[in-house]
Predict the 3D structure of the following.
Amino acid sequence: MFPTSSEKFRIEIVEQTWLGNEPPQFDLCSHGRLWLEVDGQIILDGREIYGISESALALLRTLDHDHTPQQPLAEKLIFHGCGTVLMMGCPIGVNWSVIHQEDQVQLGHFKRWDSPDEQHPQEFPGLEVVLSLNEYQKQVLAMAAKVREFFKSETKQFFDMQDQLAYERFWSEFEMRYKLHTMGS
């Protein structure tokens, strides 16, 4: 049996911003620094830049469904940020499995890719925790709430209709999944 505790999984946005020298209205994803700690093991220490908004959506998907290497919900759960709203295309990031067991989730198989070399991730052998689904949801929803707030007053400009449709689909799914777990809260 794995240890259970609300302190077994913690993910926080350290900083969230727009990337590059372009004006914010052209950046369709937020970027920034994350803290990820699992059972006292620091996986992300807030120094590197990741794609915050697309990572939040990937994590929202795990609130209702298992995410495993055999049946992934996204390429990774933490994206480097070069995949844009399509959430694909960059090997740098962090991934782990999320398996639902009644009112709990089991997290394991943590891997972090610090370079485009997908064959040599930083692995965290034996790092597995079980925590209540409620505690896991609180962490994911807190991150998602910060992303929603960050985008709240932003007006975006799109390169083409394809970008606009991808952005609209992204936010439609994001809002649906977020509201599903926050209604009545």
Notes: The longest strand covers residues 104-113. The beta strands are 9-17, 31-38, 41-45, 50-51, 78-79, 93-101, 104-113, 122-123, 129-132.
